[in-house]
Specification:
The protein is mostly helical and 494 residues long. It has one domain: Amino acid/polyamine transporter I (Up-down Bundle), CATH 1.20.1740. 67% of the residues lie in helices and 4% in strands. It contains 18 helices and 4 strands. It has helices at residues 23-34, 43-50, 53-80, 87-94, 97-130, 150-166, 170-199, 202-210, 233-250, 267-296, 308-311, 321-330, 334-366, 384-400, 403-431, 446-465, 467-478, 480-493, and strands at residues 139-143, 146-149, 216-221, 224-230. The chain has a two-stranded antiparallel sheet. A two-stranded antiparallel ribbon has the order 3-4. Strand 3 (216-221) and strand 4 (224-230) form a beta hairpin. Helix 3 crosses helix 15 (403-431). Residues 1-6 have low confidence and may be disordered.
Length: 494
C-alpha cells in the first residue's frame, strides 16, 4: 500500500521585493495591459478577412474563449510558483532552463519591448491628431539613414517618463496603473452604451443582417481591392484563424501579472483570481464593443466611399473603427474624443507593460542568464537597471520602425510558448505531484487540452497562410540557443 506524499510548496523565492499589490491592483495590471489601441483598430482587418458581421463576432468570441481558458489554466501555475518572472519560471521548471531562457530572450528582444514600442508610437500618433507638431510626417533629423520623426521622439519620451516613474517604487507604478485603467475602462464602457442607445443605425443593422453569415476574404494591395474570395469549408476556418492574429494581439498581455507575482499579497489566491476576473472583464467589453460597432456601421463597404457609413468597418479610414463609430455618435468632435481616449488607454497600457516586463529580466539575471546588474533591486525595491535596459531597447525599436514587423513575426512563436505553458500543467502534475496547488486548472484535463489544440491549430494556420511572417519569428527564437550556451559558459567561468 502506497503512502500519500504530503503536498509541499515550490522552492521559495528569495528577494527583496515588497508585497504591496492587492487583488484590485493585480486586476488593474491585467486589464490595463490588455486594453490599448487594438480594440479601436483591428476589427477593420478582421472584417476584411472574414467579410461578415456574424464571423467578426465569432472571431472575437473564439479569442475571448481562448483567452479565458488560458487565464484559467495559467492560474494553477501562478498559484504553484508565485515568483517574479511568471512564464519564464513555469517553462524553466516544467521543461529545461533553455526553454525558459528562449521565452525570456524573445520577450526581451521582441514580445515585451516590441509591444511597448508599438503602444508608445500609437500614443504619439493620436497625440499628433491633437498637436500636429507630433505628426509622423514631421521629420526632425536623419541619422544613419533613419528618419526620426517628432512622433517617434514623443513615443520615446513617454517610455522614458513611465520608466522613471516606475523606478520610484511599486506604489507609484500601481497608483498610475489603477488611475489610468479605471479611467479607460469607464470611457470604453460609456462608448459602448452610447453606441447602443445613441449611435445605433437602423440602415447599418439592416445591411449587416442581410449578410450576417456571408463570408468572404477581401485581398488588398496598395489600398486597392485585388479580389474578394467567397469562403466555405476549410478556407473559412483558415480565414478565421488568420483573422485572429489581430484579435489575439488586442487581447494579449493578460498574463503579465504573473511577472510581478513576487509583489502581490496572498499571491497563491490573488494571482489566479486577477487573471480570470481581469481577462474575463476585458473579453466581455471587447465583445460588446464589436456589437456596438455593427449596430453603428455596416461591416461591408468600399475604400472609395466618401463617408464612414459607405466605407464600413472593413475600410474605416486608417482602420480607425473606433473613431468612425464615435463619429456617428459625437459628430465632428469624435476625432478629438477618440484621440484623448486612446492616449489615456495606451499610456496606461504601457505603464503596466513597463512595470511587469522588467521582472522577467530580473528573474533571468538571478539564474545567470541575463546582465548581472538587472538582477539587483534599487533602494525602492524595484529592478531599476532592468527597467532602464528594457526602456533603452524599446526606444531603439521605436527609432528603427521595425517593431510592427517584429511583432508580426513573433505571433507564431508566442502561440508556441502559450502551448508549452499550458502543457506544463500536465507535465508538472507528473513531475511535481507533491507541490502545493491552491488553485487547480478548471476543467482539467479537458479545458487545458482544448486550449492547446486551438492555439496549436491557429499556429499551424499561420504557418500555412502567413509563412513569410512565421519563419522569421522562429529564427528570432532559435538565435537564443547559442546565446544561452554562451551565457552558461560565461557563468561557469565566473
Amino acid at each position: 500500500m502506497s503512502v500519500p506524499v504530503p503536498a509541499t510548496a515550490a522552492p521559495a523565492e528569495v528577494s527583496g521585493f515588497k508585497r504591496e499589490m492587492s487583488l484590485f491592483d493585480a486586476m488593474m495590471i491585467v486589464m490595463g495591459a490588455m486594453i490599448g489601441s487594438g480594440i479601436f483598430i483591428v476589427s477593420a482587418d478582421i472584417a476584411r478577412t472574414v467579410g461578415s458581421p456574424g464571423l467578426l463576432l465569432v472571431v472575437w468570441l473564439v479569442t475571448g474563449v481562448v483567452t479565458v481558458i488560458g487565464a484559467l489554466s495559467y492560474g494553477e501555475l501562478a498559484g504553484m510558483m508565485p515568483h517574479a518572472g511568471g512564464l519564464y519560471v513555469y517553462l524553466r521548471e516544467a521543461y529545461h532552463p533553455l526553454v525558459g531562457f528562449l521565452y525570456g530572450w524573445t520577450t526581451f528582444l521582441v514580445i515585451q519591448t516590441g509591444t511597448i514600442a508599438a503602444v508608445g508610437v500609437a500614443f504619439a500618433k493620436f497625440t499628433g491628431l491633437l498637436v500636429p507638431w507630433f505628426s509622423e510626417k514631421h521629420i526632425l533629423a536623419t541619422v544613419l539613414g533613419l528618419k526620426i520623426s517628432a512622433a517617434q521622439l514623443l513615443a520615446i519620451a513617454s517610455i522614458a517618463v513611465l520608466t522613471g516613474l516606475n523606478m520610484r517604487g511599486l506604489r507609484t507604478g500601481k497608483t498610475i496603473q489603477g488611475l489610468f485603467t479605471v479611467t479607460k475602462t469607464v470611457a470604453l464602457s460609456g462608448l459602448i452604451l452610447l453606441g447602443f442607445f445613441v449611435g445605433a443605425n437602423a440602415a447599418a443593422i439592416k445591411a449587416n443582417w442581410a449578410v450576417f453569415w456571408k463570408a468572404s476574404w477581401t485581398h488588398m494591395a496598395g489600398g486597392q481591392i485585388l479580389s474578394v474570395e467567397p469562403l466555405s469549408g476549410l478556407m473559412l476556418l483558415a480565414a478565421i484563424g488568420a483573422a485572429m492574429v489581430g484579435s489575439l494581439f488586442a487581447s494579449d498581455e493578460w498574463y503579465t501579472v504573473t511577472y510581478i507575482a513576487g509583489e502581490v499579497k496572498n499571491p497563491r489566491k490573488n494571482i489566479p483570481l486577477s487573471l480570470v476576473l481581469g481577462a474575463g472583464a476585458v473579453v466581455f467589453l471587447y465583445f460588446l464593443a464589436n456589437l456596438a460597432y455593427i449596430a453603428i456601421l455596416p461591416v461591408q463597404g468600399s475604400p472609395e466611399a466618401a463617408d464612414a457609413v459607405g466605407r464600413g468597418i472593413q475600410f474605416a479610414q486608417f482602420d480607425r473603427v473606433g473613431t468612425a463609430a464615435a463619429g456617428m455618435i459625437f459628430g465632428p468632435a469624435a476625432a478629438v474624443i477618440m484621440a484623448v481616449l486612446i492616449m489615456i488607454s495606451t499610456f496606461g497600457c504601457n505603464n503596466g507593460l513597463i512595470l511587469s516586463g522588467a521582472r522577467v529580466y530580473y528573474a533571468m539575471a538571478k539564474d545567470g542568464l541575463f546582465f548581472k546588474a538587472t538582477g539587483r533591486l534599487n533602494r525602492k525595491a524595484v529592478p531599476g537597471t532592468a527597467l532602464v535596459v528594457q526602456g533603452v531597447w524599446a526606444s531603439l525599436l521605436c527609432l528603427s520602425g521595425t517593431y510592427s514587423d517584429l511583432l508580426d513575426y513573433v505571433i507564431f512563436a508566442v502561440l508556441i510558448f502559450f502551448v508549452l505553458v499550458v502543457s506544463a500543467i500536465f507535465i508538472l502534475r507528473k513531475k511535481r505531484p507533491d507541490w502545493e496547488r491552491p488553485y487547480k486548472a478548471w476543467g482539467y484535463p479537458v479545458v487545458p487540452a482544448i486550449y492547446i489544440l486551438v492555439a496549436a491549430a491557429i499556429a499551424v494556420d499561420l504557418l500555412v497562410f502567413k509563412t513569410r511572417n512565421t519563419f522569421p519569428g522562429l529564427l528570432i527564437v532559435l538565435l537564443g540557443i547559442p546565446v544561452y550556451f554562451l551565457r552558461r559558459k560565461n557563468a561557469a567561468r565566473g
